[in-house]
Specification:
Elements lengths: L21 E6 L6 E6 L5 H15 L6 E5 L11 H6 L4 E5 L22
Parallel strand pairs: 3-4
Antiparallel strand pairs: 1-2
């Protein structure tokens, strides 16, 4: 919203009991199916494990291998679901992004413009 410089910027007050909500989500590339799970409390290994089981149940019906690409949040590597991940590796694989992925994929809009040779 644009405000003229001679007018004081508006202040929007929020209700003091406002809380955040979060979602786990995945999109199937083939047909765009969206699988999600809402988390009101916390993101931890228990809630992530429940989402993984739901995602596997909904996505493995076609008999194809499912590959999930994840970042390196600590609960993605939890011991709680390590044995389950190893057991399901053939049909449901988890691939983790490199630790310093910004060297490989620079943020959008921050790419260097390289001069072209004429």
């Amino acid at each position: 919203m644009w405000v003229p410089p001679e007018v004081k910027d508006p202040v929007l007050l929020h209700h003091p009991t406002r809380k955040g909500i979060g979602y786990f989500g995945a999109v199937r590339i083939r047909d765009g199916k969206f699988v999600y799970s809402r988390e009101d409390q916390r993101f931890n290994a228990d809630t992530f494990f429940a989402f993984l089981k739901k995602l596997r149940r909904l996505s493995s019906r076609a008999g194809r291998r499912v590959v999930v690409i994840l970042d390196n949040v600590r609960y993605h590597h939890a011991r709680l679901h390590r044995t389950w991940r190893d057991k399901c590796q053939k049909s449901f694989a988890l691939l983790f992004m490199p630790v310093n992925r910004h060297l490989i994929l620079p943020p959008f809009g921050h790419r260097k413009m390289t001069p072209t040779c004429s």
